[in-house]
């Protein structure tokens, strides 16, 4: 069945739920076993069926099953945040003395995890230009390299690595491929068809989709799934059942929301491209974006998150623009129903490449509002910017 149909019908079984459309939420720590035999056999196979709250409840298994199916992985484990999902993925491949190859446009807390905790545990990390060629990547692989970590596109600067080409090099050297697939969501980029072993979702973003719950998911292929699930359990990471419910509910409308987010993003880009204050736009679905060919070839959907590179202006002019916006909330995270703006600070965010622009970089999230109203809000912002300069 097609993905829109699975989004609606997967992860629930009304006939087993008294006819109720949505599955119930169990709040559980203890699971009671009727006999010693039942308890011992559950303890021998804690990953099959219910065992203890931390190992998951039926609604966890519904969401995890549906996410794995949508993305094309063998299995999925949910976590309490997107960053916890990244931690699980990296700890699944970690070993003392191991080496990571990480794209320079990676989510900043991932970089901090590599430079912090993983470095203390004896891992080293090399960062590389996300637009690296496969041949140049091959040169960076060492005997102790355990994983390649990419994000397509990066969520601040939107460079698009060629995931299948880089993954092929990694595989040839027995290096695991980890992708943060939050931008594209499980329906926008079928990570496992493109050589990824472990795919991360900050489900907080588009899966939940309403800016009200923190949730992560790690999906893995046959070779990695058992290790990933064991790692999550060893670390004690688990998602709350109400948040998992919100993730499952968010999935029902994921593809219609994404279509509107992407449509609004294109409308905004089209308008912004004609503004004298704008130096460039960072959004792979745009035909003249450097990542467009890769996006066109490998992706099946876009989302509403993109970058706007402004021409240099004073801080006072920029704050006059941003402080007065009425529809664009200023803050972190994205993927909810509303539009957002973030003045991007790249301090400490790159080490292998240099961001070549001088002017301010804005990250916009096109929400589900009317594009005309969003454009009017931005236009008033540019008017304030001009009069403050
Ligand atoms: C937000 C985000 C995360 C982290 O998700 P949280 O749920 O906020 O911990 C990871 N990766 C990307 C690309 C993100 O945008």
From TrEMBL:
It is an enzyme of class 4 (lyase). Its EC number is 4.4.1.13. It catalyses: L,L-cystathionine + H2O = L-homocysteine + pyruvate + NH4(+). The gene is metC. Keywords: Lyase, Pyridoxal phosphate. GO terms for molecular function: cysteine-S-conjugate beta-lyase activity. This is Cystathionine beta-lyase. The keyword Membrane does not apply. It comes from Spectribacter hydrogenoxidans. The keyword Methyltransferase does not apply. InterPro entries: Cys/Met-Metab_PyrdxlP-dep_enz (IPR000277), Cys_b_lyase_bac (IPR006233), PyrdxlP-dep_Trfase (IPR015424), PyrdxlP-dep_Trfase_major (IPR015421), PyrdxlP-dep_Trfase_small (IPR015422). Belongs to the trans-sulfuration enzymes family. Residues 1-20 are annotated as: Disordered. Its cofactor is pyridoxal 5'-phosphate. Residues 1-16 have a biased composition (Basic and acidic residues).
């Amino acid at each position: 069945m097609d993905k829109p149909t699975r989004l609606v019908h997967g992860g629930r079984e009304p006939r087993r739920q008294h006819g109720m459309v949505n599955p119930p939420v169990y709040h559980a720590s203890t699971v009671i076993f009727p006999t010693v035999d039942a308890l011992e056999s559950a303890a021998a196979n804690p990953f099959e069926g219910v065992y203890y709250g931390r190992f998951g409840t039926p609604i966890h298994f519904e969401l995890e099953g549906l996410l794995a199916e949508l993305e094309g992985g063998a299995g999925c484990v949910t976590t309490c945040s997107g960053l916890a999902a990244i931690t699980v993925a990296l700890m699944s491949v970690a070993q003392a003395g191991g080496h990571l190859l990480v794209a320079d446009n990676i989510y900043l807390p991932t970089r901090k995890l590599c430079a912090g905790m993983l470095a203390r545990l004896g891992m080293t990390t090399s960062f590389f230009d996300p637009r690296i060629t496969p041949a140049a990547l091959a040169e960076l692989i060492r005997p102790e390299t355990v994983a390649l970590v990419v994000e397509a596109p990066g969520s601040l600067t939107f460079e698009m690595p060629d995931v299948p080409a880089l993954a092929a090099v990694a595989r040839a050297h027995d290096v695991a491929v980890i992708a943060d697939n939050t931008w594209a969501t499980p329906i926008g980029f079928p990570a496992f068809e493109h050589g990824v072993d472990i795919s991360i979702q900050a489900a907080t973003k588009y899966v939940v989709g309403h800016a009200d719950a923190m949730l992560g998911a790690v999906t893995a292929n046959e070779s990695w799934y058992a290790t990933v699930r064991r790692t999550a359990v060893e670390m004690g990471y688990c998602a709350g059942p109400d948040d998992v419910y919100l993730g499952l509910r968010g999935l029902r409308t994921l593809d219609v929301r994404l279509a509107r987010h992407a449509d609004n993003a294109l409308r905004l880009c089209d308008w912004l491209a004609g503004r004298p204050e704008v130096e460039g736009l960072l959004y792979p679905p745009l035909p003249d974006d450097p990542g467009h060919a890769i996006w066109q070839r490998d992706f099946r959907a876009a989302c509403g998150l993109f970058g706007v590179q402004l021409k240099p202006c004073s801080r006072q002019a920029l704050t006059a623009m941003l402080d007065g916006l009425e529809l664009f909330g200023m803050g972190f995270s994205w993927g909810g129903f509303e539009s957002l703006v973030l003045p991007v600070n790249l301090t400490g965010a790159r080490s292998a490449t240099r961001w070549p622009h001088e002017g301010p970089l804005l990250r916009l999230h096109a929400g589900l509002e009317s594009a005309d109203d969003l454009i009017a809000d931005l236009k008033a912002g540019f008017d304030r910017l001009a009069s403050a300069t």
